[in-house]
Design brief:
Shape of chain B: globular
Largest sheet of chain A: 6 strands, mixed
Largest interface: A-B, 32 and 22 residues
Helix content of chain A: 25-40%
Structural class of chain B: alpha/beta
Largest sheet of chain B: 10 strands, mixed
Order of helices and strands of chain B: HHHHEEEHEEEEEEEEEEEEEEEEHHH
Distance between the termini of chain A: 29 Å
Distance between the termini of chain B: 48 Å
CATH superfamily of chain A: P-loop containing nucleotide triphosphate hydrolases
CATH architecture of chain A: 3-Layer(aba) Sandwich
Radius of gyration of chain B: 21 Å
Number of domains of chain A: 1
Number of strands of chain A: 12
Strand order of the largest sheet of chain B: 2-1-5-7-9-11-13-15-17-19
CATH topology of chain A: Rossmann fold
Shape of chain A: globular
Radius of gyration of chain A: 18 Å
Helix content of chain B: 10-25%
Strand order of the largest sheet of chain A: 6-9-10-3-11-12
Number of domains of chain B: 1
Strand content of chain A: 25-35%
Order of helices and strands of chain A: EEEHEEHEEHHEHEHEEEH
CATH class of chain A: Alpha Beta
Number of helices of chain B: 8
Number of strands of chain B: 19
Oligomer: heterodimer
Strand content of chain B: 35-45%
Chain lengths: ~250, ~400
């Protein structure tokens, strides 16, 4: 599914550019959920932006393939059409563009890029209604401009709503638990777990182990200074929580 | 032409000589003469004249000629249910029947134009409107309320198109007016005058879309009596040089004015939105919102002024906002918001911003699969939409036009 090999990447322009990813290698097979944990500044968010093609993040070496296809040469929207989805740590407000318009435009744009037909209005509305119900989202909220005036929890639930609407192949959740109370966290995790399938891979980026109690990972990787320095099972997350990154990172060095 | 006429403008260029010649062909008329003199004093306004620095008509209009490639815009504003008046370079047509509550007089002669000194191109329109096939002044008196919209269309290929319309809205009457400036003539100059009497209401929608060759000066002069309510919405795409100018005076207590505009300029298009509002009476309200988006090679100009005299402008409530989006490198926007306030008990605010599209928003949209072009169009449409919200039944038409431009 997603294969990252010896990836190096910088952030910033020209002489200001700083290497943040330092030879990262990682493979997430279809059907698996992998967690990436690491201290602040380890490169967690940078990795999510490099994978989704944000400008200002430049790959200087290595490769990333999704189902064997090189994605690094693709525009962000092409990667999205191939099934890459990033749930943002800080979802962006888009004044003047209602949620429904936004998601329908995105869905049809992806379909067009894949050479598929547009979704019909009734099908779209039906699907939206079902997913909104599952996520306990108010129908009124979907008529409002994207994320404008939404609480932190609402923004995160809206990310999951978009994910379930767009049905991507590969999900990256960047600090999805931040800013969520326990009930919102459960709702979000249920949404994510509903997306688990043998064809789909997930990368869950998180600072704390709390989210992983609800979204059980197959593997946990520890990211430090832009490289994976340790890989283990779900229990590794608990050790990190108990011993701190320093203990585990120290042991690995 | 006679030497006396030729001397009216100092160092005239070919275009100014042509304007003098056109004036010389019109029948003698003292009021027309005064209007032409008001124009001729400075000739075509140019960069060294205050208020015209960014929109130089003398430079943009060396000669007056039929454009080789005139714009071919269709009129998007529906006219089926409206009362249509059409001005072309060579003629004028008017609706055959009029509903009760609207009286129309096509006067051959010019009417006095009081503020001609401040509006040289308005004065020019007043001086050159008329001739064999067109009215010198189209006078319209409105006394009704549930009336069809009056639609004024300025189009047709030719050298020059001049028009003057005076609209008087009697106390308590209600009117909707729309104008489409579609180009075709090398030079179009119009003067639209609105006088709203006590408690009258008028909404005005101005649509401007021409090719890259046309020069346009559309001047609006508005006077509001007690409690009158005037709402104006403009959508401009620019041309070689287009200026949509509005001068509004609150002359009695409690009048209200909304002056909104959006401009979208592509390569080779220059759109100038200029307004001046005089709070000449207490407790009047002005709301002004101008939004623009400009591509590489396009040029947007916004000049807004609120003038509040010391003795008469107390309790003025006025707000002026201009926000511009520079969509590409090479886009140009020039803005001059001015508040000139001498009264001490007023609430006046203004804001002026310009910048690029938000990169966070762009990336967020593209990550969801929306192409760069489409993301840009959606964000730009959302950005300018607020400036079109007061256009009533025409809001959707304007949005469709803006969207089509953005989606090119």
């Amino acid at each position: 599914m997603l294969k990252i090999e010896n990836l190096t990447a910088t952030v910033g322009e020209a002489e200001e550019a700083k290497q943040i990813i330092n030879g990262l290698t990682l493979e997430v097979p279809a059907g698996e959920v992998h967690a990436i944990m690491g201290p602040n500044g380890a490169g967690k968010s940078t990795l999510s932006y490099v994978l989704t093609g944000r400008s200002g993040y430049e790959v200087t070496g290595g490769s990333v393939t999704l189902n064997g296809e090189d994605i690094l040469s693709m525009e962000p929207e092409e990667r999205a059409a191939k099934g890459m989805f990033l749930s943002f740590q800080y979802p962006v407000e888009i004044p003047g563009v209602p949620v429904m318009t936004f998601v329908r435009t995105a869905m049809n744009s992806q379909r067009k890029l894949r050479g598929e037909d547009e979704i019909s209005a009734p099908d779209f509305i039906k699907k939206s209604r079902e997913i909104a119900k599952q996520l306990k989202l108010d129908a009124e909220m979907l008529k409002r401009p994207v994320n404008v005036g939404f609480s932190g929890g609402e923004k995160k639930r809206l990310e999951i709503y978009q994910m379930m609407m767009l049905e991507p192949n590969f999900l990256i959740l960047d600090e999805t638990d931040s800013g969520l109370d326990i009930d919102a966290l459960k709702t979000v995790a249920e949404g994510v777990n509903a997306m688990r399938s043998p064809e789909r891979g997930m990368l869950v980026i998180t600072h704390y182990q709390r989210l992983l109690d609800y979204i059980k990972p197959d593997k946990v990787h520890v990211l430090s200074a832009g490289r994976i320095i340790k890989t283990g099972g779900a229990d590794l997350a608990h050790r990190l929580e108990a011993e701190g990154y320093e203990g585990v990172v120290g042991e690995a060095v | 032409m006679s030497t006396a006429l030729r001397d009216l403008i100092a160092n005239p260029n070919a275009a100014e000589l042509e304007l003098i010649a056109r004036y010389g062909m019109l029948p003698e008329d003292a009021r027309r003469e005064r209007a032409f003199e008001a124009f001729a004093k400075g000739g075509l306004p140019h960069r060294r004249v205050e208020g015209w620095h960014w929109s130089d008509f003398k430079a943009s209009l060396p000669v007056i000629e039929t454009p080789a490639q005139p714009g071919t815009a269709q009129d998007p504003l529906p006219a089926d249910d409206a009362v249509l008046f059409s001005f072309t370079p060579t003629g004028f047509t008017s609706a055959e029947s009029l509903p009760e509550g609207i009286r129309v007089l096509a006067k051959p002669e010019a009417q006095a134009f009081g503020a001609s000194e401040n509006m040289p191109l308005g004065a020019l329109a007043a001086a050159l409107a008329g001739g064999k096939t067109k009215p010198g002044t189209l006078m319209i008196e409105v006394t009704g309320q549930d009336l069809p919209r009056l639609h004024f269309r300025f189009s047709g290929a030719g050298e020059a198109n001049f028009a003057r319309v005076q609209i008087i809205v009697r106390p308590g009457a209600k009117l909707a007016v729309s104008e489409s400036y579609l180009g075709g003539a090398g030079f179009t100059a119009s003067l639209m005058e609105f006088s709203l009497q006590a408690g009258a209401e008028c909404s005005r929608t101005v649509y401007q879309r021409t090719g890259k060759a046309e020069v346009l000066a559309a001047t609006g002069a508005v006077q509001l009596d007690e409690g009158a309510d005037y709402r104006q919405t403009t959508l401009a795409f620019g041309g070689k040089l287009t200026r949509l100018e509005t001068r509004l005076t609150h002359q009695e207590t409690g009048a209200k004015a909304t002056l909104n505009a959006a401009y979208l300029c592509a390569d080779g298009h220059h759109a100038d939105i200029t307004t001046e509002v005089r709070h000449g009476a207490p407790s009047c309200v002005t709301r002004q919102l101008t939004k623009g988006a400009v591509l590489d090679g396009g040029r947007g100009v916004y000049q807004g002024k609120f003038f509040v005299p010391r003795n008469v402008g107390q309790k003025t409530d006025a707000d002026m906002q201009h926000n511009a989006l520079l969509l590409e490198e090479g886009a140009e926007v020039f803005a001059k918001p001015e508040l000139e306030i001498y009264a001490d008990d007023v609430e006046c605010a203004h804001g002026n911003t310009s910048g690029a599209l938000d990169t966070n928003q762009m990336f967020y949209m593209r990550q969801r699969g929306i192409t760069e072009e489409e993301a840009r169009a959606l964000l730009t449409e959302a950005f300018i939409a607020e400036a079109l919200e007061e256009a009533g039944e025409l809001e959707d038409v304007l949005r469709v036009q803006a969207r089509a431009w953005l989606a090119r």
